[in-house]
């Protein structure tokens, strides 16, 4: 069993996430702790209000929600709901949450059985539960004891297996000039073609490019394209094609376009059960109410063995994302997972909904643009140093930035800014009964 604990600012958001899964038919509400009514009589409002009322007892606790997932081995799919609730109750007791209100959901949208538990960090007396190192201490101890008590597959075994399969296949990156071209490409193809489940040439290339290899049909007007030919080429570190292209038919395994198209059909069915793992990883990463960048999302996904490959047009704008899951060895174009996982949707969900933002956040500056970019960055630095308020100006509307700039560039008319020597002396008011000659 593997336990993952996350805290957040929004109970409503976490509850909605699980309730939406129930509405989609991929999750069930199976139990609760310290609620005054039976679960079949609990509405969404009752579930939420019980948590919110207790949280309101201590307004100083900002990260007040707790979201726990207990994940079981793929061989343990036969665990009953009753047993899952026993495990949930035991786990919550062992980590010090036995008196807290909590909700338990069983999810069916992944390749392994798992449950989600929603709770809060504020006790009934208004005191705050300290969760510092709870994952390393209380949770780790509870996990080991539960594995023994219920005869579950130990997490150490699960982690070792995951480390073996959550990495790219064991093939060396091709370096042009260091190894004979055909032999180097053959080594990559032998590992990738038979292990990964791809359903199109771009999906295959999303994997091959990680080893500096690409399957190329040429331009649509080329002879090789019109004759349904295919060549394999080496890429340098900048992603540029180098060296002599080698025809697919020249390789011993003959990985021709016809061969790949047969694989596409077989792989389409084989990869289908593994969609949910990628979708869950992305959804969980974006569950936090604070927006994260696309690059941060890519790093989070990589921790689960999922590589996000960005595709851009000639102007450097993101137009596509391909997900390569090294654990299940499945490849999906974003649209194949659903609209929510396409390039445009991911940019919107990350808070990047215009071309300038996505270009700055996803892609490196081209060499030809570096001089201009450096000059512009100096101007931005000078402007931002005028005030702390301008440090994050790139994320503010242009009209607000304009107001700030005007504030710090307009002339100042307050006389208090003049040196004392240049200020006109004020005339003393005459007192009644006094003459000018006094």
Characterization of this structure:
With 438 residues, the chain is of the alpha+beta class. Helix content is 40%, strand content 16%. The strands form three sheets. The protein has a five-stranded antiparallel β-sheet with strand order 1-3-5-4-2, with helices on both faces. The protein has a three-stranded antiparallel β-sheet with strand order 6-7-8. The longest helix has 16 residues, at 135-150. The radius of gyration is 30 Å and the shape is elongated. The N and C termini lie far apart (100 Å). Residues 160-167, 354-358 and 363-424 have low confidence and may be disordered.
Quick recap:
The protein is of the alpha+beta class and 438 residues long. The chain has helices at 11-23, 44-55, 81-94, 135-150, 155-165, 181-195, 201-208, 223-226, 257-271, 275-285, 294-303, 334-337, 343-349, 355-362, 370-384, 398-409; strands at residues 2-8, 27-33, 65-71, 102-107, 114-120, 213-216, 231-235, 241-247, 306-312, 318-325, 330-333. The protein has a five-stranded antiparallel beta sheet with strand order 1-3-5-4-2, with helices on both faces. A three-stranded antiparallel beta sheet has the order 6-7-8. It has a three-stranded antiparallel beta sheet with strand order 9-10-11.
């Amino acid at each position: 069993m593997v336990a993952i604990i996350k805290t957040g600012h929004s109970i409503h958001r976490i509850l909605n996430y699980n309730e939406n899964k129930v509405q989609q038919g991929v999750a069930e509400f199976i139990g609760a702790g310290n609620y005054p009514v039976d679960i079949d009589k609990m509405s969404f409002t009752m579930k939420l209000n019980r948590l919110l009322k207790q949280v309101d007892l201590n307004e100083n606790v900002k990260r007040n929600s707790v979201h726990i997932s207990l994940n079981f081995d793929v061989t343990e799919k036969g665990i009953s709901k009753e047993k899952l609730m026993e495990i949930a109750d035991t786990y919550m007791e062992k980590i010090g949450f036995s008196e807290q209100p909590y909700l338990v959901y069983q999810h069916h949208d992944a390749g392994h059985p798992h449950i989600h538990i929603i709770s809060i960090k504020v006790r009934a007396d208004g005191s705050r539960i300290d969760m510092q190192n709870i994952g390393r201490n209380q949770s780790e101890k509870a996990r080991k004891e539960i594995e023994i008590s219920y005869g579950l597959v130990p997490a150490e075994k699960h982690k070792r297996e995951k480390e073996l399969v959550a990495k790219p296949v064991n093939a060396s990156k091709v370096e042009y000039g260091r190894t004979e071209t055909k032999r180097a490409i053959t080594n990559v193809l032998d590992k990738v073609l038979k292990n990964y489940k791809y359903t199109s040439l771009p999906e295959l290339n999303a994997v091959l490019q990680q080893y500096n290899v690409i399957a190329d049909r040429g331009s649509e007007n080329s002879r090789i394209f019109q004759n349904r030919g295919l060549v394999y080429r080496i890429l340098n570190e900048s992603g540029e094609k180098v060296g002599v292209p080698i025809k697919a038919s020249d390789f011993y395994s003959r990985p021709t376009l016809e061969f790949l198209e047969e694989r596409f059909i077989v792989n389409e069915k084989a990869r289908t059960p593994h969609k949910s793992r990628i979708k869950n990883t992305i959804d969980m990463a974006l569950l936090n109410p604070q927006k994260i960048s696309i690059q941060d999302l890519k790093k989070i996904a990589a921790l689960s063995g999922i590589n996000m490959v960005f595709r851009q047009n000639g102007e450097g704008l993101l137009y596509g994302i391909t997900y390569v899951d090294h654990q299940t060895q499945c490849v999906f174009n974003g649209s194949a997972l659903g609209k929510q996982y396409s390039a445009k949707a991911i940019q919107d969900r990350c808070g990047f909904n215009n071309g300038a933002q996505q270009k700055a956040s996803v892609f490196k500056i081209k060499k030809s643009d570096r001089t201009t970019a450096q000059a512009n960055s100096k101007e931005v630095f000078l402007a931002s140093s005028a005030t702390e308020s301008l440090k994050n100006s790139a994320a503010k509307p242009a009209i607000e930035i304009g107001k700030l700039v005007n504030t710090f560039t307009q002339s100042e008319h307050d006389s208090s800014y003049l040196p004392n020597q240049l200020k006109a002396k004020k005339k003393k008011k005459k007192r009644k009964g006094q003459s000018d000659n006094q």
